[in-house]
Amino acid sequence: MKKGQNILLSGLVATMLFGVSTLSASSNLHDSVSQKETSAIAQTNLKGMKQAQARLEMLNKKDKFLTKENLSVFKQQSRIDETKRLNLIVANSMKNSKNNMNKTPKDVMSALNSTIKAMQYLYMNKIDNTKKSLQDATKLFDKALKNNPALDLVPVDQEVQVTEFFGDANIVKKVKNQAIKLLKNNNTQLARDLVLSLKDQTTITTRLLPMITYPDATKEALKYLNKNKPKDAFIVLNEALHTVVVDKIIIPLPLVTAQDLIDQASKLKKSNKKDVIELLNLANDELQKDILLGYATNSSSDVKSLQKEIKSILKEVHGKNKVEKLYEHIKSSFKSLVHKLNND
After folding, report:
1. What's the number of domains the chain is made of?
2. pLDDT tens digits for 61-72?
3. Are residues 273 and 233 in the same domain?
4. What is the tens place of the pLDDT at every residue in 291-303?
5. Under 8 Å CB-to-CB from 141, ≥6 apart: which residues?
């Protein structure tokens, strides 16, 4: 699981603040268009339509390629089974996400909403409303910090996004090889579309409010308003929003799916060889897909070690020895790897 942090201004806030002016500018521009300009725009639109059509043809080629490969490999039942496993993974991610958000003090959430309202009012030049919102935010922030002086980065928003790749390791290889051929023939855009499809992951995005600096910014903005300096107040609030930390955790679905398949196999009796072997082979393929999709860049040796353990279990399934201890060991190996990735 990869973690990354960067600083962003919330798209929602930007839309609320600047959406009206953008629409207004677009309307005024349209009203001032002359006949010559209209003709020029029409020609531009025609050119754009041709480009869009060419783009569509490229995408159709991509779809035909992927469809052809998928149909040759997959059965409907495997799709259903994978969807069930995926739904379980998403449900667990959503549950964890909700638990994290429940830890956020309500006063902090209310205070943040008040600062966003303040920016809206300030943009509309409603100074009194802005002051009132900032005063409310300050009181709420002070209350939250008084109750817990150790507050630092507090989660204020979280979303879970799932991107699926319906295909086995062999399909991944073929898509990568096809992309390489397209690049060699300078079909860069089509190659790009193919490469972008090579994602099989859950992305959990969390926005964190820095309580060390953000509350002070609301107080500073209020001081500027009291000095009749609304522009300075807006700058301070805008810069404060840019300090919101965005933390992303990427969970590779092949690794999680392999772990689930091993767990399912361990619950079956050794005498049920056909189903056990099928589950173990699927788990091994998911691990290979994890490597091919680039999720195991920093842990390829660990993933390959898991594959060796699966081969050992498969060998014992055909033999007379017990496999319980082998299952216990590989489950422990999975947990260790997940913990390691989660703390990178």
Report:
1. 2
2. 555 555 444 434
3. no
4. 999 998 766 788 8
5. 107, 108, 111, 211, 214, 215, 218
